[in-house]
Amino acid sequence: MNIVSRLILIAYFLEAGLLLSVAPWSVFWDRNYLLTLWPALAGVAGSGYVRGAVSGLGLVNLAAAVAELAALFRPQAPHAAAGPGSGGAV
């Protein structure tokens, strides 16, 4: 993967992680248009278990962003040239 695509992936993970971690505990979670259409869904969405699960997914996304950042700044080992004595399959 080239650097630009990795940076876009990191930005996506950060944005999704922050949104999923914070949104379930905000006022916008309770004032959702879909919850007014399906009142039964409002009870499920208001549950602490569901909010915690969504926040957990956000934390997983944030961890993925940190892992990608660490991999981006990790020094890369030079690739060995594939030659006859490189230990390949015979």
Question: What does this protein structure show overall?
Answer:
It is a single chain. By secondary structure, this protein is mostly helical. The protein has five helices and no strands. The longest helix is centred in the last third of the chain and has 26 residues, at 48-73. The protein starts with a helix and ends in a 17-residue tail after the last helix.
End-to-end CA span: 30 Å
Q: Total number of β-strand segments?
A: 0
List low-pLDDT spans: none
Task: Give, in order, the helices and strands.
Answer: HHHHH
**What's the Cα radius of gyration?**
21 Å
Mean pLDDT: 87
What fraction of the residues are assigned to beta strands by DSSP?
Answer: under 5%
Lay out the secondary structure.
Elements: H1 3-22, H2 27-30, H3 33-37, H4 39-45, H5 48-73
Helix pairs in contact: 1-5
Summarize the structure.
It contains five helices and no strands.
Features:
about 90 residues, mainly alpha, about 70% helix, elongated
